[in-house]
Specification:
mainly alpha, 4 helices, globular
Amino acid sequence: MSDFHCNRCGGTSCSDGASCVPMSNPPVQNKYWEKVMAVTCGRCWTDWKDMEVKIINEYRLNMLEREHRQMLKKFMTDFLDLDGTGKTAELPNEVSENWKPS
């Protein structure tokens, strides 16, 4: 896995000095999650899972509503820098600035 590069933590080693390894066991086996796995290390994925719970709770997102699922997916994309822009969102401050309750 020496050619693995995590978009969020910026490389082959995480902030704590441990070597980055791709996340394992995606929620669903499809092309989208293969793409997520290709650019996200296990440590950053764990960080996202913790942040995801905070976002859902703080903003009272209902995962039965399509709009809320899309919003959470956008936050995940920004947090993990899935698009590879090099700019990751610092949540929840970034979230609160963009949040418009319905």
